[in-house]
Amino acid sequence: MKNFVFLFCAIALFAFVSCNDDGPYEDYLVARPIVQDAISFKAEAVDVVDPIPIVSSGKIYAYQDYIFVNDVNLGFHVIDNKNPSAPESIAFIKLEGNNDISIKDDKIYADSYGDLVIFDISDITNITIKSRIVNAIYNNDVWLSNLEYPQADFYEYGDIDYSRDIVVGWEVNIERRSVEEYESRYNCDGCVVDSLESFNDSPQPSTGQGGSLARFKIIDDYLYVVDYSNINIFDITDIEEIKVLDDVQVAWDIETIYSQGNILFIGGAQGMYIYGIENPEKPEFISEFRHGTACDPVVVDGDYAYVTLKGGGFCGNTESGLYVIDISNLENPELKVIYPMDGPNGLGIKNNTLFICDGDSGLKVYDKTAVPNITLVNTFEDIIAYDVIPLASSLLMIGDRTLYQYEYVDDNIRLLSTFQL
């Protein structure tokens, strides 16, 4: 009888708890971030290791007999190119949060989650890190890594100090929560669902060469780096004491940087912005050329700028094409011709030849002798073309995990080598 009474009371109590104002209850997946101190994490995120397969090929950079290929957000691969017919991967520089580099006097300047990191490659077999300037490019107090969100019903962040802590993983547990809490959080008008994202507010002999998609550019003793809205300026005269100068705000959508003489040409999703650097520490606005929303690298040769606009997806709704712009009057750039393209990315110029990476449509080669009128002279199909670097005697092109090298032959080019990264 006592057991019966106890069982009856237990059932009644359970019913009361389950049917009160917060019930009924269910099991839900609750995810919480695992954090690590930013200083120790960044120290662990840099290393030089033996060659490894590439995950996602990004930008390329050429320096002396070497090619550096970015592995998006992971670091960059070092390739010995003394023999362009048979390039050899010799190292991988692990640098998390990296997308771009520039090199001068055997020093690599690279980004890492908003920090500027400098490497010494004077001995290519013993690459060392010289220094790291925290938040030099942009303030990265809210560091969000590229971790995928785990499948969960609730995301709880606790008391994370976003100026000190970095999210390095997730812990997911099964916990009892009221159905009402779940439904009120996810099935109501105007509710804000928790998300971690809600917290995220002509080269010199000693200088390498990047492609048209570059965000880094070294000119004399100054390094210019564009983030999403500013030109970041560094005086690198003294490698032991790099000076971080005042930023220059451009727009909220800038993507690339290119130079001709003492003029900077900034490519952005909304247009091309022109700045003078007579005073290299304080670029001054000259003019802009506006266009529809699209991804927008730019290269310049003489009185003309060549801008590829890639529409669709996150790039915007502008139709893809090549814009040829007269910049003989820098204060009043004038659109001359638009050539339709399929899905252009980077581009480059060698004398009177214009190279355009047209995505899945391959590498297209144009004669620009009669600019602004250009003539298609060759197409390398069945490849994915991302960006190019025209060198003195050869052309480098990066595609989908593949490095292509072409040599100039009279007025045309031919494939020299293909290297799977």
Assign an overall shape: globular
What's the number of helices?
3
Sheet having the most strands: 6 strands, antiparallel
Radius of gyration of CA atoms, rounded to a whole number: 26 Å
Signal peptide: 1-20
Protein name: LVIVD repeat-containing protein
Keywords: Signal
Organism: Maribacter spongiicola
Summarize the structure.
The protein is built from three helices and 34 strands.
Name the descriptors.
2 domains; six-stranded antiparallel β-sheet; globular; 34 strands; five-stranded antiparallel β-sheet; 421 residues; single chain; mainly beta; 47% strand; Methylamine Dehydrogenase, Chain H
Descriptive overview:
Keywords: Signal. Residues 1-20 form the signal peptide. InterPro entries: LVIVD, Quinoprotein_ADH-like_sf. By secondary structure, the chain is mainly β. It folds into 2 domains: 25-210, no CATH class; 250-421, YVTN repeat-like/Quinoprotein amine dehydrogenase (Methylamine Dehydrogenase, Chain H). It has 3 helices and 34 strands. The protein has helices at residues 2-18, 38-44, 179-186, and strands at residues 25-37, 46-49, 57-63, 66-71, 75-80, 88-95, 101-104, 107-112, 115-120, 128-133, 154-155, 165-178, 209-210, 216-219, 222-226, 230-235, 243-244, 248-249, 254-260, 263-268, 271-276, 284-290, 298-301, 304-309, 321-326, 334-340, 347-350, 353-357, 363-367, 375-380, 387-390, 394-398, 402-409, 412-420. A hairpin with a 7-residue loop joins β16 (230-235) and β17 (243-244). The protein is globular, with a radius of gyration of 26 Å. 35% of the residues are buried.
